[in-house]
Amino acid sequence: MAEQIPYGVVSSVINRLGSLAFREISLIYGVKSGMDKLKDTVEAIKAVLLDAEQKQHHDILVQLWIRKLKEVLHRADDLLDDIHTENLLRKRDDEEKARGKVLAEDMPKLNFDWRVVVMGHKESNKRETSFFVHKEDIIGREEN
């Protein structure tokens, strides 16, 4: 029985490895040469797929090679998905950290008055800090 040739997966892997996103990722993580080698290898495999398709009808070893190739290509495609997802999560985390830093840096420019206020039930001893308080809620700051 002839194996289905994984042209689509090969093309997908080649396109993803050549994309701007993966070039950026490979530079960030210092794996550019490894990604380039992987892309070259997959392109070389793609070049022999037509021959493999013809030979598989009468060569069991070629059929086995194609079966193994499909497994490896699917794992490589999954790995590229994982790398891309991790990169997106890293970017999101970096952006959130940067936003928090900008907010903290803006606080002194706005000349906020820091006040300690007690909020909640009378029996609660919890103290909270807030920028938005009513004067009647301020306790122990008469001199200020």
TrEMBL record:
Residues in Disease resistance N-terminal domain copies: 9-95
Keyword field: Nucleotide-binding, Plant defense, Repeat
Annotated Pfam families: Rx_N
GO molecular function: nucleotide binding
Gene3D superfamilies xref list: 1.20.5.4130
GO biological process: defense response
Protein name listed in UniProt: Disease resistance protein RGA2
Native organism: Senna tora
